[in-house]
From TrEMBL:
This is Uracil phosphoribosyltransferase. Pathway: Pyrimidine metabolism; UMP biosynthesis via salvage pathway; UMP from uracil: step 1/1. Keywords: Allosteric enzyme, Glycosyltransferase, GTP-binding, Magnesium, Nucleotide-binding, Transferase. Its EC number is 2.4.2.9. Uracil binds at residues 194, 199-201. The gene is upp. The lineage of its organism: Bacteria, Bacillati, Bacillota, Clostridia, Lachnospirales.
Length: 209
């Protein structure tokens, strides 16, 4: 079973507390989402593999560490996931970025892919799927399945706020995926919003309300 890690870092908790406030406008909301993604990325990359390499400093030869293992990719789920990309790339600038977009078919209620563009070598990369809100888990589970169907094998999921219902659904569907969460909230309401949550993350990032 993949791990579920709720980030307890004080800076993350403090910043999540700020963006929950309804009076915070799009500019600040967007900036802070990006900062949180940056701190979360730092925590979620703690276990990346290192290897020894011999180098020469201006003084002498020595051995230093460098990142080894798989290269990285970030895949935001459109549209709110876009808000986390810049923060992720601040920490891992060499990562490639894919995009995945889904909508829910009004008749079948099944998620349907409307956009997917991934790095060509995505199957060889460690892929961080990002979406600020893990609510019912429907789109996250479907997005990860689509990535697996396209040959992606190593997937981690990162969200800023999660509902227990979404975490359960994700773990049941994709037990191999590690899940990184900024704050685990109480529940979903009847409209599928996370409580207490922060409202609609996409609308707040892009000012579309
Ligand atoms: N998506 C959001 O943006 N907010 C929620 O509370 C749930 C899903």
């Amino acid at each position: 079973m993949g791990k579920v890690l709720v980030m307890e870092h004080p800076l993350i908790q403090h910043k999540v507390g700020i963006i929950r406030r309804k009076e915070v406008g799009s500019k600040d909301f967007r900036e802070i989402i990006s900062e949180i993604a940056m701190y979360m990325c730092y925590e979620a990359t703690r276990d990346l593999k290192l290897q020894d390499v011999e180098i020469e400093t201006p003084i002498c030869k020595t051995t230093v560490k460098e990142l080894a293992g798989k290269k990285l990719a970030v895949v935001p789920i459109l549209r709110a996931g876009l808000g986390m990309v810049e923060g992720m790339l601040t920490m891992i600038p060499a990562a490639k970025v894919g995009h995945i977009g889904l909508y829910r078919d009004p008749d079948t209620l099944e998620p349907v892919e409307y956009y997917c563009k991934l790095p060509a070598d995505c199957g060889e990369r460690e892929v961080f799927v990002v979406d600020p809100m893990l609510a019912t888990g429907g789109s996250c589970v479907a997005a990860i399945q689509m990535l697996k169907d396209k040959g992606v094998k190593n997937i981690r999921f990162m969200c800023i706020i999660a509902a227990p219902e979404g975490v359960k659904k994700l773990q049941e569907a994709h037990p191999d995926v590690d899940v990184y969460i900024g704050a685990l909230d109480e529940k979903l309401n009847d409209h599928g919003y996370i409580v207490p949550g922060l409202g609609d993350a996409g609308d707040r990032i892009f000012g579309t309300k």
